[in-house]
Amino acid sequence: MIKKLIDIKLIQKVMQESENDYSIEVNDIVFIFATNKGDNYASEMFRASIEYTRSNGIKKEKKSLIIKAEPLSEGLQKDLITKSELFTTEMNMIMNTLVKMNELVKPEACFSGRGLYTQIKPSLLIMEDLAPLGFRMADRLNGLDDDHSLLAIRSLARFHASSVALCEKDPSVKQCYTHGMFSANQPKEMQMFFIEGVKNLSKEMVNWPELDPKIPQKLEKIADTVFEKASKANIFRDNEFNVINHGDYWINNMMFKYNDKNQPIAHIFVDFQFSHYSSPGIDLQYFFNTSLNDNYFTKNEQKLLEEYLRTLTLTMSRLKCQTKAPTMDELMKMYKDRAFLGMMASLIILPIILVKKDESMNINELMDASVNGSVVYGGKSFRKAIVKRLPIFDKMGFLD
Rounded to 5 degrees, what angle do the CA atoms 108, 110, 111 make? Predict the structure, then answer.
């Protein structure tokens, strides 16, 4: 299907411009899926393995690129992604905003791979492949441990700090990122994904004897209003400390590089479709509630917040930001004010992350709870985690 969008002529143009060598001639391209089912939901991703020659036409060289395309098959996934304008947001981040943010922090850090080509209709984004540079995803089923979590939280703090510096230099950047995943402006399809997800989960929880039966009843009652409440927690507040949030900061939207002892030594971000200018509490809640090993999360939340603030403050100082970094009290207030988003991530995103790899589904399948409810929500890891979290969310008043 990707061959309908891309031919040798286009790839040759991309290669010539990215290598600044117009003698490049592409001889062959092989396309394979770049992610497994369940690893990516908001696009179709392919790896293009390219064979090419330069001026003399004798020595064959090879390179791989990542191609990200909007879904081509009709259905909920295509409607949701097209109407949400997710590709517009990501293209702007990759081709403009992140180029400037990377420039601010280099050589100490790099937030993203290079964007090489964009196309509006149908939406298409071609990027450098990070795998040959040594980056790979962590295991979503196990969650992040201490080494991974510290790398990820420091990287997030630098990302946020550099966005502050950039927005000081060019305040118009803020206007490019006004939505986010839980924006009230998201189309009906996006909102229904979360609303129906809460309803489906409440039906499944009725059969869980270890859970207070009042909790699934409460969830069912609030289901129709959850997205509206999330959009209020998501909203930009001018009197707060604000940053460009990644917006979908979960374990599969980051990659790590490892040393020869298999210890993570570098971190990079991928997938910027929900980037959003607002409180850093949004990224923090989403990250903590989706990506950490559950036992680690409960014991190390405060430690990670302190490390985030330490790195944020140091980076803002190094970048000579005029904006003041928040105090710990101010950060904790912003974080707690966005806790409803953490609950939404726990209820809807976490079960998808923890579905066994051989049972992973696409968005259309996830919405069909009559068939898939027990698969999505019945996994041992998710059940164990959410049973512990729901009484906490209930005490916070989120289920009323």
Answer: 135
- Burial degree of 294 (CB within 10 A; 0-12, 13-18, 19+): middle
Residue 62 in 3-state DSSP?
Answer: strand
Domain ranges of the chain: 86-114+135-395
Helix (H) or strand (E) holding 329: helix 328-337
In angstroms, what CA-CA distances link 301 with 74, 142, 172, 284, 337?
A: 41, 17, 34, 10, 16
Question: Whole-angstrom Cα distance, residue 352 to residue 372?
Answer: 11
Structural contact between residues 221 and 400, judged by C-beta atoms closer than 8 angstroms: no
Picking from 46, 45, 62, 65, the residue whose alpha carbon sits closest to that of residue 54 is 62
Instruction: Give this prediction's pTM.
Output: 0.92
Does an H or E element contain 17, and which?
helix 8-19
Torsion over CA: 291, 295, 299, 300 (sign): negative
d(CA 333, CA 360): 36
What are the tens digits of pLDDT across the range 309-335?
999 999 999 999 999 999 999 999 999
Structure-token pair, residue 198: 């809460």
In 3D space, the residue among 71, 61, 64 whose CA is nearest the CA of residue 14 turns out to be 64
Burial class (CB in 10 A: 0-12, 13-18, 19+), 175: exposed
The fold adopted by the segment(s) 86-114+135-395 is Aminoglycoside 3'-phosphotransferase; Chain: A, domain 2 (3.90.1200)
Residue 288 has pLDDT above 80, yes or no: yes
Angle 154-155-156 from CA coordinates, rounded to 5°: 90
Q: Report the distance separating Cα 172 and Cα 177, nearest Å.
A: 10
